[in-house]
């Protein structure tokens, strides 16, 4: 007669599939939550579209030309005559500052060129033109 041992013959198993599900859920949760932590402080402008778009984000200053023709230096409205002086002040603080020129697509081309010319005359060597990616 064969006696059964008192030990449990079935060893407990580690279920890995539910563990993987939980890890992926946490990964998605943290990815989605970090998207809402970034705030952009820009003025809403209807940008034109371009096929080649590149984003630069070192220290940058937005120069925006609104649809009505007014010029915004970051969040402050400034006349075109004082733009070069303000750019000189910013370049004096940090010489590698990037100026991002954002112009509404309804603004006359000549006004965008005059703002770009003021930036260049003031000594801004790193100027980008903001556009939206074409769909």
TrEMBL record:
<keyword id="KW-0653">Protein transport</keyword>
<dbReference type="Pfam" id="PF02472">
    <property type="entry name" value="ExbD"/>
</dbReference>
<protein>
    <submittedName>
        <fullName>Biopolymer transport protein ExbD</fullName>
    </submittedName>
</protein>
<keyword id="KW-0812">Transmembrane</keyword>
<dbReference type="InterPro" id="IPR003400">
    <property type="entry name" value="ExbD"/>
</dbReference>
<dbReference type="GO" id="GO:0022857">
    <property type="term" value="F:transmembrane transporter activity"/>
</dbReference>
<dbReference type="GO" id="GO:0015031">
    <property type="term" value="P:protein transport"/>
</dbReference>
<keyword id="KW-0472">Membrane</keyword>
<feature type="transmembrane region" description="Helical">
    <location>
        <begin position="12"/>
        <end position="38"/>
    </location>
</feature>
<keyword id="KW-1133">Transmembrane helix</keyword>
<keyword id="KW-1003">Cell membrane</keyword>
<dbReference type="GO" id="GO:0005886">
    <property type="term" value="C:plasma membrane"/>
</dbReference>
<keyword id="KW-0813">Transport</keyword>
<comment type="similarity">
    <text>Belongs to the ExbD/TolR family.</text>
</comment>
